Amino acid sequence: MVSSKREIRNMETDSKIHKKSRRKKLVFWLLIDLTVAAVVFALLIYRPGLYDPADFDSFNHERGQVSPYLTHELSPQFYNNSQRGEPFDLLVTQDGINEIVAGLGWPKFSEGIMLYAPAVLFVPGSAVLMITANVKGVELIITIELEPKIDEQKLLNLHVVKIKVGAVNITPLARMMGKKMYAERLAMLPVDKEALQTKIVGSLLNEEPFDPVFRIENSKMRIEKITIHQEKLTAHFVPTS
Question: Partners of 141 in the beta sheet?
Fold first, then answer.
């Protein structure tokens, strides 16, 4: 009888120890999960140090006004040089492209997400677009790195090197979603595949190279080379028939 009572007490003790051990494990894994979630959230809301969006008001432009850099500098340069029928270089500065982008009418809305405060960086070999996405009150900085490439057939591809949300690299997922969105858009809406904007979207979302030829009156100019240095981009144009 005494032995039986001792066995019952031992079993009760073992059960209590087991329950305490299980609770400790649950608390431990809960802390791990919370830590991982906190780290992921911190990485997602990370603000890159290079992100410095231009303030549209700092350019002293009227709302809806087309960028003077585009109308007074880039367009005249391109037009005048294209009329000569000779190869030429068109220089685009980082400050100039940010003036153009800042005046495109922000914020913009897509699928319940508000996009605003864009910034463009020219770094050796790449163009980097950074923009704020407001998702249900949470601000996330999206970074897209582009590397323009012209292949042996003289076709241009705006190759997307990297896409990040905060400090998190989402390039494979973004490419998969981009291809799906591009295919759905082509299937649902009538699209002019020869339009320049369509070709640009196809290159960005679906890695489709296109012929970078621009028509100005009776002239046609082709981009033969794109070179990106720190804070400037140079496009080399040649006349084509």
Answer: 132
For the chain, the residue count is: 241
Cα 82 to the center of its chain, rounded Å: 32
Cα 45 versus chain centre, distance: 15
The C-alpha atoms of residue 38 and residue 109 are separated, in whole angstroms, by 28
| Residues in contact with 233: Cβ distance below 8 Å, sequence separation at least 6, in sequence order | 91, 92, 97, 122, 127, 226, 227
Which ranges in 83-215 belong to alpha helices (H)? Answer: 94-102, 171-188, 196-206
Bridge partner residues of 89 (DSSP): 236
pLDDT, one tens digit per residue, over 18-58 is 566 677 777 777 878 788 778 877 888 899 999 999 876 66
Q: Is 97 exposed, middle or buried (0-12, 13-18, 19+ CB in 10 A)?
A: buried
Residue among 94, 212, 96 nearest 149 (CA): 212
**pTM of the shown model:** 0.83
